[in-house]
Write a structure and sequence with these properties.
Strand content: 25-35%
Order of helices and strands: EEEHEEHEHHHEHEEEH
Number of domains: 1
CATH class: Alpha Beta
Structural class: alpha/beta
CATH architecture: 3-Layer(aba) Sandwich
Largest sheet: 6 strands, mixed
Helix content: 25-40%
CATH superfamily: P-loop containing nucleotide triphosphate hydrolases
Number of strands: 10
Strand order of the largest sheet: 6-7-8-3-9-10
Shape: globular
Number of helices: 7
Radius of gyration: 18 Å
Distance between the termini: 38 Å
């Protein structure tokens, strides 16, 4: 479970996150929506330990900066981060060694699913942006995390990879993994979210559980709230 309580992040006088609290339960897919500058990437970077903040963030009960928390969480950033001079295979070997894992073939199966198995000898710098994103996903999931945080994971992926990643989302959910997904591609997550948090100006302005009752679509909900928020700010 991912738990965030009273998190505030300031850049000088700018309040990027203002007293944010929420949680993502085991086996739950939580979607984070909001316009540009709402504070989505900031809270994600706080969660994964890249930014200092005020408040509490716990990963399965442990502080998010603890060694145990780092073993339990995976982070897939919007911009893929790969090593220029490591091959695809060496990236995954590096992950296995970092987490002291035996090679059970899982990482190779991830490569196959994302059509990267024929690129094992390619250097990171030789991969296209889309392939780097797929490698970033495979590396992040290779240690079978209990919590996975995705920041715009579908950007730059080809149709097959998008389809496969959606399948992975469902599989992780069924295995009890907590998923937090930040995205602008609202229609891409319409079918499988459990809870959505909508951010504006560093705050959560709405939280909705998915009742699967054929009511208001996620896109309609998003625009009704954000457009209303813009009007109130004028």
């Amino acid at each position: 479970m991912l738990r965030i309580e009273g998190v505030t992040k300031k850049y000088g006088k700018l309040i990027a996150n203002d007293d944010i609290s929420f949680q993502v339960d085991d086996g739950q897919i939580a979607i984070l929506l909001g316009p540009n500058g709402a504070g989505k990437s900031t809270i994600i970077k706080c969660i994964v330990g890249l930014l200092r903040f005020q408040g509490l963030i716990a990963i399965n009960g442990a502080p998010n900066t603890s060694e145990q928390a780092k073993r339990d969480i995976a982070y897939i950033p919007e911009a893929p981060a790969v090593y220029d001079l490591l091959t695809v295979s060496e990236h995954l070997e590096f992950i296995r060694r970092a987490y002291r894992m035996e090679d059970d073939g899982y990482s190779d199966r991830l490569l196959e699913r994302f059509e990267m198995d024929d690129k094992k000898g390619k250097l990171g710098k030789e991969l296209s942006k889309g392939m780097q994103q797929k490698l970033s996903i495979c590396c992040a999931l290779a240690h079978k995390p209990k919590i996975a945080v995705f920041d715009e994971p579908l950007v730059g992926l080809d149709p097959h990879a998008i389809k496969e990643l959606k399948t992975v989302f469902r599989e992780l959910k069924n295995e009890g993994t907590s998923l937090l997904i930040s995205t602008h591609m609202i229609d891409s997550v319409e079918d499988y979210w459990d809870v959505v948090n909508i951010m504006m100006n560093g705050r959560f302005v709405a939280t909705k559980q998915n009742r699967m009752d054929g009511g208001q679509s996620l896109e309609d909900l998003f625009f009704s709230i954000t457009e209303r928020g813009k009007e109130a700010a004028q």
